[in-house]
Design a protein that fits this description.
There is one protein chain. Helix content is 27%, strand content 29%. By secondary structure, the protein is α+β, with helices and mostly antiparallel strands. It is globular and about 85 Å long. A hairpin with a 4-residue loop joins strand 2 and strand 3. It has helices spanning 3-45, 59-62, 99-102, 166-169; strands at residues 71-73, 76-84, 89-94, 107-110, 118-121, 140-145, 150-162, 176-181, 187-195. The chain has one domain (43-195): Sortase, Chain: A, CATH 2.40.260. Strands 1, 2, 3, 4, 5, 6, 7, 8 and 9 form a nine-stranded mixed beta sheet that branches.
């Protein structure tokens, strides 16, 4: 092959790779926008109850093993919403997870807020958990269940776990764990939280 033909072939390959890269960037931008729209739509409809302050003891304290209440929106069931003030995030949380559900919102991976072992997973969309790595120790995370009970946590640790570390994701005695995949998809950004003991924390254990 002549040098001219070789050069033309390399230019063609380079142009093709640029088109592929731009297509992937465009798809990622569109997918993130779609995810943000889905989250906004659900948050507008999600309506946790206002707790009755006259009630001496919330139901979940009387029976911590009870199922978390859910609300159905658009054919999916949600257990509440997650707020991360430092990231300006307010996100619905689905009752259970699979890859299709995660395209809509964060999902419960395992556990329950009532037993202090809740694990929540989400895609690394900017509108979901893509900015978890920017959290700092001591940052506040709030989960509100469908009954309106507030569960306030503080970030204690941020770690990167291998994608195969499924048991480790649910171990360690953490009250709340949030995780998402890294850009490579080979590892998991994992945020470990402990229950915050504050005067206004309605879910403080007896």
């Amino acid at each position: 092959m002549s040098s001219r033909k070789t050069g033309a072939a390399l230019i063609g390959i380079g142009f093709f790779l640029i088109v592929v890269a731009l297509t992937l960037v465009g798809y990622n931008i569109w997918d993130d926008y779609r995810a943000q729209s889905a989250v906004d739509s659900v948050i507008e409809q999600l309506s946790p109850e206002t707790p009755d302050d006259s009630a001496a003891i919330p139901d979940y304290l009387l029976d911590p093993t009870r199922d978390m209440p859910t609300e159905e929106i658009g054919g999916y069931r949600y257990i509440g919403k997650l707020s991360v003030p430092s990231l300006e995030l307010e996100l619905p949380v689905m009752e259970t997870w699979d890859y299709e559900r995660m395209k809509i919102s964060p999902c419960r991976y395992s556990g329950t807020a009532y037993l202090n072992n809740l694990v929540i997973c989400a895609h690394n969309y900017a509108s979901h958990f893509g900015r978890l790595k920017n959290l700092s120790q001591g940052d506040t995370v709030i989960f509100t269940d469908i009954d309106g009970n507030l569960f306030t946590y503080e970030v204690s640790k941020i770690e990167i776990l291998p994608g195969t570390a499924l048991k480790e994701m649910q171990s360690g005695g953490w009250d709340l764990t949030l995780f998402t995949c890294t850009m490579s998809g080979q590892s998991r950004v994992t945020v470990r939280c402990k229950e915050a003991i504050t005067a206004g924390n309605k879910q403080k254990r007896p």
